[in-house]
Amino acid sequence: xxxxxxxxxxxxxxxxxxxxxxxxxxxxxFIFQGIxxxxxxxxxxxxLALLFVFELITSAKWKGAxxxxxxxxxxxxxxxxxxxxxxxxxxxxxxxxxxxxxxLQVRTSVGSIMQPSFYLFFVDVIALSILSIWNRLYGxxxxxxxxxxxxxYTGIAALLCISVSGGYIWSSSxxxxxxxxxxxxxxxxxxxxAAMKESKEKAExxxxxxxxxxxxxxxxQTSYFDQIGQAVEAGTPNYFGYxxxxxxxxxxxxxxxxxxxxLSVGGNPVTPVLNQxxxxxxxxxxxxxxxGQGNTSDAEFLSNTSIYPxxxxxxxxxYGDRVLPSxxxxxxxxxxxxxxxxxxxxxxWDRNRMYPALGFTKYYDKPSFENDHFxxxxxxxxxxxxxxxxxxxxxxxxxxxxxxxxxxTSSHHPFKxxxxxQRITMPDGLQGSQxxxxxxxxxxxxxxxxxxxxxxxxxxxxxNTIFVAYGDHYGLQKNDNDPAWVSExxxxxxxxxxDRFNIPLFVHVPGAEGKVMDQVGGQVDIMPTVxxxxxxxxxxxAYTAFGHDLLNTTSNVIGMRYYLPTGSFFNNDxxxxxxxxxEDGKATDIRTKQPVTDFSQYRADYDYILELMKLSxxxxxxxxxRAP
Length: 628
What we know:
Strand content: 5-15%
Oligomer: single chain
CATH class of the largest domain: Alpha Beta
Number of strands: 16
Largest sheet: 9 strands, mixed
Structural class: alpha/beta
Number of domains: 2
């Protein structure tokens, strides 16, 4: 400390270094639930490298101001990342900046998870700002001498710290689990590692081709399913063309977890409409979300393309400039009109770019609906369906087949339903809780859906339509809903990961008998399943799908990342979450919710999912850009 004081004189270097390191400790406490002293050298090397660079390039006159700004920016970044982690459960990288313009749209949700302790990141910034103002007004004037370190020593120190950080980054480069990698590297080095990974992937793509990637995907899937004993049977797949030529309606239900289906509270069913739909449809109770940074918009992308989100950027933002092979585009070639309905502004999550990329004929957004002020997004689900039904009836009159997508919002976090719209009363134990509000919102979503179904039946559309309904992602925030408490309140066994990411899928097909489908599925499987029912062969159409037709799949494995670490997967038996790799991972039985200690038999699933998701990333990045 004395050495640095002599070397740097009145430079704020030491003070700012100490302040930032204290904030790194605070960040680790919030994110990784502990101080983790053995991880501090990684943080220290990265912070010193950053400060040495600024020490080297900043003149004595501006040193105080520059270091103050560095400290303030680091405080803001760590604060924002902590809030982000509380909401999404993952450590953000610099790519999350692409979604900053979406924050105001969900400010109610973000504000509800803010904790006063998060503002500790700014205590020193405020104190140092006050002290700086005081010194400027009343402190002694400094002449600036002896305030610049010798450039040679500073440069050597900077290079040394950069080398140490580089060593940490190199040693952690093989860890697919982002949380473990972030914990090992610390906040700053984790950002550098993410940038290096992105740069490497871009370099690899320059020599790749979409045809080779598609061929590799087909070979991988064929090899994997042969290995597990599920070879593709010769002949026509089950239900192929069963609903050929029929309309398609897809309902994407906001924050809808499967736990609500067939659940009763206080003697009242939460989802009476969906309970009945489950009896009349192919109902998949072991169906899971697979979204990335784009949340709801990623779910739309997944269900329409059967391509995995990359996890580093919302797909609508990163790939809205592409020609996406999709269900709307596929059906458009068969003479279908394709419309999508969402009551928010179409620029939210860059849907104004994504919908043309997906090939939708037309979209209906905020100006198309009367704002009945249901929540912060505006119009209610009832209004959404009312307008949508009018448009679909027009297609019927014109004798045009259609594909219609509806994206609901009435069950959006923080799940506040206006008093005059509430249709269920929560027991005393759930009154005022997030769980109680959540179930109330899902009950309204279910009611509005029932009104829409009745409208379809009355207009003669129901019996000529494949009707698909699924959840886009989880609703209950993990930090606000202790699984043991949820289990006690609902009289079930609720797992904080399995049940949180478990969303329902219903596929109603006119003339087909309802059936509970026990196999595992994910949003990546929706497009192939619908295509099979319509009698459209994705192979014949040269469409590459990274999911599978769930009506012809007995064993399935689906990957998930972002909300779980890369390498996580669900198969018909377990949820697997890797540690540094496969061997130190954790497995949980998806039905009993109990830990599985011996999961060695699932190594092939782990290797397959890692390779499949990499191929999916390569494929979407190689897709051609569409004309402006």
